[in-house]
Design brief:
Blueprint: H1 2-14, E1 54-74, E2 77-95, E3 110-123, E4 137-138, E5 142-150, E6 154-163, E7 178-187, E8 190-197, E9 201-211, E10 214-219
Antiparallel strand pairs: 1-2, 1-9, 1-10, 2-3, 3-4, 3-5, 5-6, 6-7, 7-8, 8-9
Amino acid sequence: MRRALLAAAIVALAGCPGLKRHSLRNAPGKLDIQVPPARLTMDPQQDIPEDPGVNQLGIAPGLSVMPGIGRMYGDGNREGSLELGVKVHVAFGESADSGGKGALGFPRDGWGATLGWGIAQFGFSDTSFPEEAGTPTVMGPITLEATRHWFYMLNVSGGLVIYPTPGAVGDGSERGVDAGGQLSAGAGPFAIKMRYVQDSGFEIFGGYQLYLPAALTWSR
C-alpha cells in the first residue's frame, strides 16, 4: 500500500510544470530547477563566443643575391659587384581572426626590424686586377633597419649600415670600418637597396630575396 502511494506521489509531482525545467539546447544538462534556463530562443548567435583574436610574432630568415655598385674598386675606379647576403626579419602584428590549424600566422601587416649581413661582394671581370689573384672579393656590411610591411610581401626599411672590416686588404678594395645609412624596399622576391657610407659614398644594389617565414601566435 505504501509503495503504491509513493509511486502515485512521484507520478503526480513529475507532472507539475512548476517543478521542472527543460533546456532546449544540450539537454539534459545539469539545471537548478529553481532557475529557468538563460537562453531558450534557439538563436545560435547567443551560443557562439566572440573570437578574441591573436597576437602574432613573425620570424623570417632570408637570403639575397643582388648585383650593383658597392665597395669594390679596381684601378682607383668604382666597379660593379654581386653582393650575397643573409638576413632575418622579425615582425609583430595582431589579427582579429585566430585562424585554424595550418594557418600561416605571420602578420599580414605590421612593424618590425631586419638584421642583415652582406657576406661578400664579388667583383665583376676587372682587367686591372691580377689574374692570378682570382676574382676580387670584399666583405659586405652589417645592417639594422626598422621595417614596415603590407600584404605579407610589400616592405620598406631604413636604418644603419656599417662595414666592419678594418684596414686595407689585397688591392685596397676594403677600405676599413665604414658607417652610414641604408634605405631598402621589396615586393615579393624582388628588392632594391641604396646606402650611403662615409668612405665609399653612394651604393646601390637590386636583385632577388627569398624568405622562409615562421610565426608564434597567442590569444589576445
